[in-house]
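Protein record
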Amino acid sequence: MARTCFVHIGASKTGTSALQRGLFDSVEQLAEQSVGVPFVGRRPHVDRLLRPLGWRTARGFAADPNPARLRPAGTALKRTAGERLLVTCEDMCEADTHRIELWAELFDAQGLQPRVVLSVRNLASVIPSEWQQFLKHRLPLAYPDFLERVREHDGRWADHFWQRQDAIAICRRWGDVIGLDNIDVVVTPPRSRDPHALYGLFGQVIGFDPDRLAWPERDVNASWGYVEAEVYRRVNLTLGDRLPHYEKAYQPTVRWPFVKGVLPRRASARIPLPPEHLSWVVEVAEQQVEWLSTHVRVHGEVADLVPGADAAAPLPELSEADVADAAVETLANFAVQTYRELRRPRAR
């Protein structure tokens, strides 16, 4: 009888960072419960599962797939013990049908039956988070412009957003290959209600006791405030097409320093969904609820996907003085970090 391989495909900004941190820090505890983790950490997932199929950082599946490069992944899957296996990588939700077929063939060749787990979250919370995430991908659009593009499905940034967040389309793509009866959807509850509820729901689906795992106590992927995020956006805008190679030039000089503390976190007001966008977000959410409730197994409160009136708030005013102050602080932090890097001993 084929073993089940649970494939958690995201979606992005649904609590995946904290969930994965806990899972990767608890491989031994999972093994004690007959759950094997063949790829521990993000990097092995990227190298073994994504890059062979043409995935590129910040661009998604931009290159042609090379199925032969999946062989090391097959070896890792075969050698991993456990009644059930678990793979978790949020970028897999962006794959087209052809790439999904290649993964399905990979699992089948190792005697594994894939069962997809898609985590979803209230779009009123996801949209501001995705704008910040896309800033790390060199997005130059101001937040109000991004909102309009997303609503109108206009342009590559909007296309990328919906590829990652259209739960119905994601389920259909995967369902066309493995069948909708092999898809579980987990609704990420509001953290304010229960910060550990997602772990419990996920444990129910995979089959492990979440109380035996080591979950992070702090926010793994904290947000920036509106002012600080605007600083990042203006850096992208000013850079233009300079530092064209993302992984070799932009990522080490902009993204990683900003993410690792050069750009202050949450120093200013949070980024909300403006009230004028609430109605269309509610409409999309209601469509998702109706379809998901009918076609796949849903775990958690599906009503949590529909934003209430309190989910929207007016955008904070962007003061040029505040933006300038945050930019100066960022420059000062950058200088300190650069100095520390220069003093760090280099391996010979």
User: Anything to note?
Assistant: The chain has two domains: 3-126+160-221+275-310, 226-269+318-343. The mean pLDDT is 96. DSSP finds 14 helices and eight strands in the chain.
